[in-house]
Amino acid sequence: MDDTLNTVKSILKKYKQEHLISFISQLTENQKSNLLNQILNIDFDELLGLYDAFNNSEPNPTEEIEPLKYVIKDSLPSNKIKQYYNIGIKAIKSGKVGVITLAGGQGSRLGFKGPKGTFCLDTEPKISLFEILCNYIKTYSNKYKINIPWYIMTSTSNYFDTINFFEQNDFFNYNRNNIHFFTQANMPIIDINGKLVLSEIYKVHFASNGNGNVFKALKKANLIFDMELKKLQWLFVGGIDNVLLNPLDPVFIGYTISCKVSASSKTLFKEDPTDISWIFAKKHKKPSIVECENFTEQISLLTDKNGNFLYRETNMLAHLFSINAIKKLSDINLPYHRAFRKNAFINEEGMKQVPDNPNIYKFEQFVFDAFSHFNNIALLRVNKGEEFAPIKDFNGPYNPEVATQKYEELILKKRSNIY
Q1: How far apart, in Å, are the Cα atoms of 22 and each of 7, 9, 27, 286, 353?
Q2: Same domain, yes or no, for 365 and 314?
Q3: Is the pLDDT of residue 416 over 50?
Q4: What are phi and psi of 73, to 5 degrees?
Q5: In this predicted model, what pLDDT tens digit does every residue of 322-352 receive, in sequence order?
Q6: Are residues 307 and 352 in the same domain?
């Protein structure tokens, strides 16, 4: 233990992080051992390099931006819809499509303790976000008598709670052999002064490193090999909180296959040109999602010769990747983005302190950064009223009450029309 402690002291001195072991004399042997092992496994060069890079970064110039082609689903003629639908159904029926769900979040913003996917809508009977998604999968599985693999990425903090929830609910009467759980990686959080933060006097504060870790996490869990064994060709990647998100939409799948691309995304139209939501565009000649902080309203109002807006397609976290794209991305280090958050921490007296304002930086990778590693992607704009009802919090526009209303109107009352 003394040798390990000396090694840790040397590392912390090098990176000016000595505060992490300020309370080591108060720890039990197990706590001390766990803390030292945590520190030994931290890549300080990477973390502090990100901190320095973001502090010295320059705004992205808009001159690098070009339009990215998209298709509006509601504008497609019925024969095209039918064509894409038939192609998609053929892929589903032949067992070529699997589902990946990003479910690492907690329900804290909903005032709910537990994984976000376990949150229940106030329907009769109540139904969880996980069960809603499972019902979509079961619709096709039962109809075509096939096994559709479902891969669920959790965080390390909600992994066991998620599995327990599925077990308590008998996996929603879906074959448990078709459901695979895996965890995303973590990254230490850091304060505004470049200091790592303790969550307890014996524990460095880690946070999940974003949904963009999904590709490497799949590889680490040996699930890409599982996908290949199952001869999957397409994997849908989506979030857990959108109650209208059909992960097996045949039209979307068929459209993607017809475009002969390796990746695609559903988009929503950005109604307010002054909204700073990120938009799809080409950057450095590659498909990307770009920040709009530097976009003038004038750019958002640009149209093509047919009057279609060039820069108004936003992300709704509904993507499709080929198995080869998944394999390729599992070997690529996606960039990190920085978020400024409010987070409790252990102060100099060893007491947990809750700040009044944001105090830490969290670094995250995002799935959408994968698109820049392809020459082209397919975009399909869908109807927001029919396909987008996420649950974000209780007070904003995307709250449980609105989501429940849309779910009951567009799913329960029209179940026979679900693709």
Answers
A1: 15, 11, 10, 47, 16
A2: yes
A3: no
A4: -60, -45
A5: 999 999 999 999 999 999 999 999 999 999 9
A6: yes
Whether 51 is in a domain gets the answer no
Give residue 109's pLDDT band: very low, low, confident or very high (50, 70, 90).
confident
Give the number of other CB atoms < 10 A from CB of residue 50: 18
Q: How many other CB atoms sit within 10 Å of the CB of residue 382?
A: 21
What is the per-residue pLDDT across 182-221, written as a single tens digit (0 to 9) for each?
999 999 999 999 999 999 999 999 999 999 999 999 999 9
Does residue 342 share a domain with residue 229? yes
Q: Is residue 272 part of a domain?
A: yes
Q: Is the peptide bond before 390 cis (omega within 30 degrees of 0)?
A: no
Residues 23 and 65 in one domain: no
Residues comprising the chain, all counted = 419
Q: Are residues 136 and 105 in the same domain?
A: yes
Domain around 10: 1-41
Supply 19's token pair: 């505060």
Average pLDDT, the chain: 93
pLDDT(59) > 70: no
CA-based nearest residue to 366, from 155, 208, 213: 213
Which burial class, exposed, middle or buried, applies to 291 when counting CB atoms under 10 A from its CB (0-12, 13-18, 19+)?
A: middle
Please measure the distance between the N-terminal and C-terminal CA atoms of the chain and give it in whole angstroms: 60
Instruction: Decide if 200 is inside a domain.
Output: yes
Q: What is the CATH number of the domain that holds 336?
A: 3.90.550.10
The residue to which tokens 């979509």 are assigned: 136
Q: Are residues 23 and 85 in the same domain?
A: no
State how far the Cα of 16 lies from the Cα of 332, in Å rounded to an integer.
Answer: 30
Distances (CA, A) of 388 to 71, 266, 269, 271, 336: 18, 11, 11, 14, 26
Cβ atoms of 326 and 215 closer than 8 Å = yes
Give which of 261, 212, 246 is closest to 104, Cα–Cα.
212
